[in-house]
């Protein structure tokens, strides 16, 4: 038999565990908090949440006070034969406790329905920036159809979405493989990316972010092995910064003619272009896009700051590890790649030697 003191101790442990868990949710707004909106759409959602929250607090307090009052007032007393008055039906009370919740729900429903329509509205017009978002296992690709380079390719990048402040950005989203979900907690809710379909999401950001501290985003639909590492950043620029970034991205990267970069270029052409693309300028001045678009575009890669689904910062050391054995840094399943059918589940280990790796790093660095 369990002793009384043991029971008591168990209850206390349970109480503190529950309290601990509950309090953990008050630990300020973490990196990916939806309670710290940085744009008008996220603010609407947050305000709606606050409305529901405070109504719930009032209801909770009233109900608990009534409950405690009833428990105390009508408790069983040892010495008297106390039975509460036996009541059957009370029309006034029943009408009241039906009407009050109905009014509360109506108060919540009106801004909720309006909010659902606002969030779903697809912005149109000359001021809207359209960006195509393609989800891949396990990274996000961004294409800007409004900006094309000399080879006729749209500006294409990965893992870091650049947008100008105060501009309505219409994301036109799809997936190359399985269902993913695009979520930037500071700017809007989540929206699925469905293969063979397009979905839209609007982003509007109030202020530019410091370039070393962009807004975090995350795939929010379980997509297998490296789902947790399928992140991205949203770098909010001033209009001038954004224009400069676009101009830089549209420049072709240069094919080297000497040094370790040239060694890297040779490996790049023979190995990497099976999956990666880049728009390059040949020594004779011609501009062309080489490679296959199954993996992140590597033009201007080094300037991106983060790689592998924004899991890591780009440094010489991490890049050397990545090129030596990518799956060491991020769980992937390249054995199941089927390039002929456009299916890629990770970057393989190519058994590159030290000189090849140094050459590739030199090449990618020169492609900042
Ligand atoms: Cu995903």
Summarize the structure.
It contains 8 helices and 15 strands. The protein has helices at 4-24, 40-73, 91-120, 239-250, 259-270, 316-324, 326-329, 354-366; strands spanning 129-136, 139-148, 154-158, 160-164, 169-175, 180-183, 191-193, 199-203, 215-219, 231-237, 253-254, 277-281, 287-291, 306-307, 312-313.
Task: Give the helix/strand layout.
Elements: H1 4-24, H2 40-73, H3 91-120, E1 129-136, E2 139-148, E3 154-158, E4 160-164, E5 169-175, E6 180-183, E7 191-193, E8 199-203, E9 215-219, E10 231-237, H4 239-250, E11 253-254, H5 259-270, E12 277-281, E13 287-291, E14 306-307, E15 312-313, H6 316-324, H7 326-329, H8 354-366
Parallel strand pairs: 1-5, 4-10, 11-12
Antiparallel strand pairs: 1-2, 2-3, 5-8, 6-7, 6-9, 9-10, 12-13, 14-15
Note the total helix count. Answer: 8
List each distinct ligand once: copper (II) ion
* Contiguous uncertain segments of 5+ residues: none
Q: Rounded to an integer, what's the Rg over CA atoms? A: 28 Å
Characterize the overall form: elongated
Percent in strands: 15-25%
- What is the rounded distance between the termini? 72 Å
CATH homolog superfamily of the largest domain: Cupredoxins -  blue copper proteins
What is the count of β-strands? Answer: 15
And the CATH topology of the largest domain?
Answer: Immunoglobulin-like
CATH architecture of the largest domain: Sandwich
Number of domains: 3
């Amino acid at each position: 038999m369990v002793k009384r003191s043991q029971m008591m101790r168990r209850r206390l442990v349970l109480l503190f565990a529950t309290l601990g868990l509950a309090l953990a949710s008050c630990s300020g707004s973490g990196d990916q908090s939806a309670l710290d909106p940085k744009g008008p759409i996220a603010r609407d959602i947050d305000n709606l949440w606050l409305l529901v929250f405070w109504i719930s607090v009032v209801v909770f307090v009233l109900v608990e006070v009534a409950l405690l009052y009833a428990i105390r007032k009508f408790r069983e007393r040892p010495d008297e034969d106390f039975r509460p008055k036996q009541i059957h039906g009370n029309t006034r009370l029943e009408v009241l406790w039906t009407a009050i919740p109905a009014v509360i729900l109506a108060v919540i429903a009106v801004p909720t329905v309006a909010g659902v329509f606002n969030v779903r509205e697809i912005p149109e017009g000359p001021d809207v920036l359209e960006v195509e978002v393609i989800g891949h296992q396990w990274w996000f690709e961004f294409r800007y159809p409004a900006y094309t380079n000399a080879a006729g390719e749209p500006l294409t990048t990965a893992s870091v979405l650049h947008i100008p402040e105060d501009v309505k950005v219409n994301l036109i989203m799809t997936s190359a493989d399985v269902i993913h979900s695009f979520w930037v907690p500071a700017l809007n809710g989540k929206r699925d990316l469905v293969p063979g379909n397009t979905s839209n999401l609007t982003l509007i950001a109030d202020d530019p972010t410091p370039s070393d501290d962009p807004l975090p985003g995350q795939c929010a639909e379980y997509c297998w092995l490296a789902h947790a590492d399928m992140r991205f950043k949203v770098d909010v620029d001033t209009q001038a910064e954004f224009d400069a970034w676009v101009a830089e991205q549209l420049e072709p990267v240069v094919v080297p003619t000497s040094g370790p970069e040239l060694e890297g270029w040779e490996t790049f052409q023979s190995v990497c272009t099976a999956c990666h693309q880049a728009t390059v300028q040949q020594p004779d001045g011609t501009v062309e896009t080489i490679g296959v678009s199954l993996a992140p575009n590597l033009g201007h890669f080094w300037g991106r700051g983060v790689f592998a689904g924004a899991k890591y910062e780009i440094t010489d050391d991490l890049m050397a590890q990545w090129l030596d054995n990518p799956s060491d840094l991020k769980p992937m399943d390249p054995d199941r790649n089927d390039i002929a059918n456009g299916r890629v589940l990770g970057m393989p280990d190519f058994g590159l030697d030290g000189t090849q790796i140094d050459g590739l790093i030199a090449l990618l660095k020169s492609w900042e």
